Amino acid sequence: DAGVIQSPRHEVTEMGQEVTLRCKPISGHDYLFWYRQTMMRGLELLIYFNNNVPIDDSGMPEDRFSAKMPNASFSTLKIQPSEPRDSAVYFCASSLSGGGANEQFFGPGTRLTVL
Amino acid sequence: KQEVTQIPAALSVPEGENLVLNCSFTDSAIYNLQWFRQDPGKGLTSLLLIQSSQREQTSGRLNASLDKSSGRSTLYIAASQPGDSATYLCAANRDDKIIFGKGTRLHILP
What we know:
The complex is a heterodimer of chains A (about 120) and B (about 110). With about 120 residues, chain A is mainly beta. Helix content of chain A is about 0%, strand content about 55%. Chain A has strands at about 5, 10-15, 20-25, 30-40, 40-50, 55, 65-70, 75-80, 90-95, 105, 110-115. The termini of chain A are far apart. The relative contact order of chain A is 0.33. In chain B, the strands form two sheets. In chain B, strands 2, 4, 5, 9, 10 and 11 form a six-stranded mixed β-sheet that branches. The interface between A and B is medium-sized, with 25 and 27 residues.
């Protein structure tokens, strides 16, 4: 398996623009997680899905952020409109099942820079 | 609310030394504790996962221990090598949500 795939790897955009980050989880994994990593706050969970259904989005910072998982092999994280403080590395991760029994596998991340 | 703390934030040691990285968490009701490695500009690689019912896990030169009662975990690295230089993060997992520490940036001096 190719592991968790994220695209793009790098994104540079201007404030106010819409940004869409993409993730393909490992085949067969039922859980998908979106994280954000910054120097100040470290790694933070934004939202996670189980069987394509959003379970907990309490980590989503504001209404400008939205995430979807239309099918088991694809998820998007959208920021509209983007702001400079959204600059961070965004990671997607997947796991075989929940309940803490299985480890999470991380993608390489998308480095977002908002000018 | 779960908080995960890693001390020190950075560590430099000569090659060949054994070393211990520390992780503490405030809520002992966890499902598991996971240690990750992150290389600069890269994603996270899972190193060891300790279930709540376990006390330790070993993989090669790495050994992770878990003491839920005291809210502590340690990652022991034996015979350190320059290739071990990276940031090491611990993460406490409960209810499918992982809370990460901010990591220890490790530098092994050749």
